Here is the input.
Amino acid sequence: MTEAVSRVDPGLTEPLLAKRTSRHWLIAAFLTTTIVALPVLSVIFLAFFPEENIWPHLLDTTLPRYLSTTLQLMLGVGALTLVIGLSSAWAVTMCEFPGRRFFEWAMLLPFAVPAYVIAYVYTSLLDYAGPVQRNLRDWFGWENASDYWFPEIRSLEGAILMIGLVLYPYVYLLARAAFLEQSPSLFAVSRSLGHSALSTFFRVVLPIARPAVAVGLSLVLMETLNDFGTVDFFAVQTLTAGLFDTWMNLGNLGGAAQIATTMLIFVVILVTLERYSRRRQQQFAARDNRDPIQRFTMSTPRQYACLAVCAIPVLFGFLIPGFTLGLYAWEYFGESWNTDFIQNTLNSLFLSGTAALTTLLIGITLAYSRRLHDTKGMQVLMRLSSLGYAMPGAVLAVGVIVPLAGFDNWLDSLARDVFGVSTGLLLSGSTFALVFAYTVRFLAVSAGSVESALQKITPSMDMASRSLGHTPGKTLVRVHLPMLRGTLMTAALVVFVDCMKELPATLILRPFNFETLATYVYQFASDERLYHSALPALIIVLAGIVPIILMSRSISKTRAMG
Amino acid sequence: MHMKLAAAAALTLTALPLSASAEGDVNIYSYRQAYLLEPLLNAFEQETGIDTNVVFAKKGLAERLEREGRNSPADVVMTVDISRINELVERDLVQGVDNDVLNQNIPENLRHPEGKWFALTTRGRLIFTSKERVEEGEITTYEELADDKWNDRICTRSGKHPYNIALFSSMLAHHGEADTKAWLEGLKDNLARKPQGGDRDQIKAIAEGVCDISIGNSYYYGNMLQDENQRGIAEQVRLVFPNAEGRGTHVNISGIALTKSAPNRDNAIKLMEFLSSAEAQRIYAEANTEYPANPDVQPSGLVAEWGEINPDQLSLQEIANNRNAVVKMVDRVDYDGE
Here is the structure.
């Protein structure tokens, strides 16, 4: 079945594409990446100035534990998200079962729940005083905690479950988009050659979807690596915990930056390895994908199996936490409700929308520039601009402050010297700083998915368009973007929901008296008043759902309309 | 083209600072939750007509202040925990205030010698015991927490939490390196479970029968008593003022400092004066069941019922100075390990 993955020597297509390419794209890509890379470069810069060398102490004491916990967490979450994401994406794309159309978008619902929120909710449900254990005690007549064993939710396993339940949609979204883009005839050919559906899945479908799935999985792993809220709450000591300990408790920002840089290098190695392993693979849609997908018709038990594969993650990742939040919100409504919510919701929507759009535009610019100039330098630029995602939000926030405040103060000095007026701080402490931070943080999401989708459009499309006299820009707008509509909306959706949930960078960078839903939740949660945070947490979830439904429907439509 | 237009519009919009602070407003970087400050700031605004603006975060504000430099809009920083405030002094981000009102309202041991910070409230770090399983008077000091008697009977939050670091720092100041390490190892051995959760969670654990003793700040207990859904849990524990008979109970502070760059210095000092005044100190005491720093103001009725607190007179500066040594000691005894 190697024919399914048509291999083209890249050397053949490159000169054709590069010819008559305007330099604008190259310059635009270079400028954008430089600006976007500044925060990460700032953190690396800070790493050169530690208060003291932290490594002897770390190596001597906690580092081995931090490392092994981090690896276990990443492996666990990676496996869980792959299993849930791939199986459900396959089921809703290829199988006909009751509720399939509902689950197409419902699978995304857990994505709207921030990991720290789901952690709070399950802790309150499953800890000793929670309803589950209370009922068990009533039924069996146990007196107290020493009478029975109950799995500890605040544990590494608990953290894997919580994070996996809300992050699997990354894999689901990208895998589903990739499955939808595959030509159904490939599948038919494989089956006619005697492969079972399962064997076809592993030998044809998955290899073709691999670039997209790899993007999804690497997003999951990076987000896991950087999570602080959940692991802190569950007392799971990862590298991130060590980083914040070095920063906040030892007052050693430089040392913390060194840990962050180490994590960064780790991520870069991981991503490079994945790319290296499929360096020879190049694939283009052999033909346009307008054939309607022929879904399997299945026996009733198999239909139920598909239903379960989809329903279980949604039940645990969304329905139970959503319902619980609803109950708490109801109970504490009088104390929690105030009119600030409307303003906070608007702030969240406005920021997330702006950031999603900005991130998408920059992502397209970078991915397309790389298509035009597929050089080593361009590749390095792409990688560099995607590193913001591989850093804990609070560290990245410091990295954002350094260049922004530096620029502001430089401009201010200049204005004072030349015109005798002070311009003060223009960028830092404004909503611009927030949008900038979100863009830097989530560019990996949009650039990665646009890039992997662009790779699947055969260069002959570009050549045809260009030979008809279109400029690269026109080719992008008239040829590529229409073909990528589904991918673009997916990318925008993911960034939007991510921004809605973003907490650590928002806290540090936001203007005075400015709250998003996430920071508002944090105010109460950080003061050990979880019940008071239920209502705003519920609003984050609800506000995330609406765009999820809207965009998921239009993604499905791109396929339906062809 | 739509996309380009939309992008241009979006970029223009974000460049507009949404909540520009007006001239004369006092701008606050706060490590305390904004809603805890709200009643105080409202009272200040009513009395003086001066508006205030707040950014709340638990990390990164010092870095933001430092990088913003002389153009920083922040006038004051409000923090909890002595080490956080001390860090601002060490990084030269705050300025001294020599002000008669403040000097009169806040006792000398609760302010920086050059006025670089002032405590606004104090909170005792107390021991909580199960009413059922621990006799009254069975434990009266921090030192006893390391006794074998309490093996598998104690719960605490992470040893790295600033409140525990400050407590351990005070132990280091009183007992020296070797004895403190031995004490910390003993305490770790007595833990019923891996350190986790917050101070309230430890009180809950006592109610659940997981352990019999916990360490926690006074106001968490007070807030639990005020919350009808948690009162039942809090009522199952008894509170102990450790070392009340001897050197006194370890206390930490919440405080305020004037930034070096403070653009609205005069109004900011007015806010500091106001927060130290009897009126504001009463609000502090009532709203969060803390101890007022101003000795003229009595603790709230609920807090007064617990009995008088005899605070350890150890200088807060010394506690802050011990921080790094204690953080590393916590790692060495693997306090947060399994």
Observations:
- Residues 340-372 of chain A form the longest helix (33 residues).
